[in-house]
Hints:
By secondary structure, the protein is an all-alpha fold. It is built from twelve helices and two strands. It has a two-stranded antiparallel sheet with strand order 1-2. The N and C termini lie far apart (44 Å).
Amino acid sequence: MLCVDCVRQHQRSIPREQRAPRFTDRQGNAIPLATYIIIGLTVVVYGLQWAGQVIPSFPDVSSLLMYSPLHTSVAALEFSQVTGQPLFQPWRMLTSALVHSMGSPLHLLLNMAVLWLIGRQIEQFLGAAKFVAIYILSAFGGAVAVLFLAEPNSAVVGASGAVYGLFAALWMIGRRLGADTRSITILIIINFAFSFIFSGISWQGHLGGFLTGLAASTPVVLADKKLAAGATPELRKRTNRLTWLGLALVAVVLVALAFIGALLIDTQALLGH
Length: 273
């Protein structure tokens, strides 16, 4: 998607003391460790999902980690008081990115393939910490969009929202490097078309993840552009702080939206479904 030499040249332009910590192989090539860890963790969770289906008394991992808007509603609190069952579980907005469809292993395969293809490039450009931040925020943003746009009793699984956030980050990085982003744009359009054409796909999560990816990658790319011409160490530190402040602001907005969305699902909607 991006010119490898362009990304490496960009890394060389950053002062050594300001470069994100990286693991390297014996040849000195950067190892995108965060990308590999996310892929490995997701695959392990998928294995646990299958274990829950074939091993007696093993927990149903899919049911424990998937997300439904009802899990983050005020109505869930009221329902818990009536039944005594803990239904309000906001952490599912993130854990749902770890579980995938049991009926179609292709769901996991495609998400992990895209993550492997583009995650390594984004991590090399942004560094592991900012890459992971954008990935998590995009997963969260996808769940927030599901909360607002999907049926209260719908259930979603998969890392697609986070992956669409990486699509957005890749597009932003391409623009920052002056690369030809037409191929990335076409890829995004095709994937969005599939989201609306085929049933059983959460276009809401895809849209939310993509918009969040745009918002989260904006302060990172703007900071990189500001420092491209060279800056003092103090300016670099201040810019880095502002970058993380921008990422934190995106997180605060998502939390606020999740809170508002929780108020929009009433008790009758919960009990009715």
